[in-house]
Every structure is written in C-alpha cells, then in structure tokens.
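ARCHIVE RECORD
Type: protein–small molecule complex
Small molecule: acetoacetyl-coenzyme A
Source of inputs: curated submission
Record status: active
Notes field left blank by submitter.
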Amino acid sequence: MSRVAVVTGGTRGIGRAISEALKEQGHTVIANYGGNDEKARQFTAETGIAAHKWDVGDHEACLEGCAKVSEEVGPVGIVVNNAGITRDGTLHKMSYDDWHEVMRINLGGCFNMAKACFPGMRERKWGRIVNIGSINGQAGQYGQVNYAAAKSGIHGFTKALAQEGARVGVTVNAIAPGYIDTDMVAAVPEPVLEKIVAKIPVGRLGEAGEIARGVSFLCSEEAGFVTGSTMSINGGQHMY
Ligand code: CAA
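STRUCTURE (tokenized, with ligand):
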C-alpha cells in the first residue's frame, strides 16, 4: 500500500538514498532539507521527489511543515528521522553552541517530527517511524560527546516511543549506521579515517544504499512485528 513518507535530511547522503528507496517501494515521498537549496533543486530534478525546506530543530517549523505536507499529499504514514549534523571536537575545545546545536537538531528533531506526525498515526492505527542513530551513539567516539550523546538519546527515544505505539499499529525502530561513504564521513581528517576503516572487519566504508535497504524493510507492511529494535549496519565494526 502506498503511504506518504517524510524523510528529514532527505536530499543528500544517506537521506537521499532513503528517499529514493521509499519512492521505489511505491510511496509518495517528501524529502525535507535544512539549508542547501541548490542541492535540493538538483535532487528534485534528478529524482522527481519534492523537497520541502524547514529546520527540524525548530518545533513550530516541524508542525507547520508536516501540516503542509498533509494538506498537499495526504496524512503522513512514514517518518524517517535522518537529519543530523556533526560539530566534532574534544570536550575541552567544544563550545556550548557545538553541544547545543547537535542536540537541538539530531535529537530534538526526532521529538519535533514525532510530535507532528505520531498523533495522526495513532488515530489512523498505522505508522512507521525510523530514527537514524549511529555506531557512535552505541560505542562512543573520541571528539564526539555531543554527537554520541544525541545519537545515544535517539536509541532511548526509539525504545520509549515504540512502547507507546505498539498497541496502535505504529512501529518505531532505529538503524545504527557505521561509517558510510557520505560528505559527513569525508569531513573526518584523512589519517583519522584511515585508522577507523582499518578497524572495520568488512574492510570498507558502507554505502548509503545499504542503510536505505534496512529502512525500506522497517517501513514495509511485513515489518509490523518489529518494533523498538536497533538494526546495526556497520560492516561488523561494533557488534552490539
Ligand atoms: N583515541 C585516543 N586518542 C585519540 C583518538 C582516539 N580515537 N583520536 C585522536 N586521538 C589523540 C591523537 O592521537 C592526538 O594525540 P597526540 O597529540 O598525543 O598525538 C590527540 O588525540 C589530538 O588528536 P587530533 O590531532 O586529531 O586533535 P584535533 O583537536 O585536531 O581533532 C578531532 C580532534 C576533531 C576529534 C579529530 O580527531 C576528528 O575529527 N576525529 C574523528 C571523529 C569522528 O570519528 N567523527 C565521526 C564523524 S562521521 C559520523 O559521525 C557519522 C557516524 O554516525 C559514524
């Protein structure tokens, strides 16, 4: 059955692969994005998927953005909370702004989007929420107290909301990607990244499509008994 799916941070990197995979599954996909208008225009031109701009860290913007999506294409049945940023640095160099901005967008964004869409899913007795966590939320990472805390929070958020959704047909799951070949990972200094890749048993970075296929499964009708789970897709780097 075709649903309306909103993918946050859905025009680039892992988010783009998720938007395309859900379209491929027959859903009407809206890709949210936060800043890069040019990349968003290019994405829509190449995929035919509409892109809507709002800041997922802004509560009112999420409520308004999702209400607009519902008016235009119908009630939202699938939400993929993928939008995320890094502001890496060791704690003694990290500013409060670096901490707060990562928490506001990466973790706050999940709350804001769930507030916008979960009530309608409850009423309609069907919904799929997939939150993109991280291996670094599971295992921690040098220079990422902000990001690791936010991603770890996503895993707790997922398990709590899954309990609220279980009786009303709404599943809530997380995917914990490892190091995937995206702009975000490309920003890690080369010598640091080399050491990280050397510790991945599969011996390479992951591909965005490998995360997207996991999301597609969790959003499918057949995955109705899967809730509160975390799917780790990390090439064996952390076996959790
Ligand atoms: N464990 C222990 N020590 C470490 C370390 C580690 N993992 N990494 C670095 N160090 C040490 C260094 O060896 C160095 O020590 P010496 O001075 O004695 O040689 C010291 O810490 C300082 O290291 P840097 O020179 O790298 O310090 P910096 O201030 O220039 O940069 C940093 C620090 C910003 C954290 C940088 O190391 C970095 O970017 N690291 C990568 C962090 C990372 O993996 N981010 C993931 C981004 S992708 C993502 O988050 C997606 C996802 O979900 C997986």
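CURATOR ANNOTATION: The radius of gyration is 17 Å.
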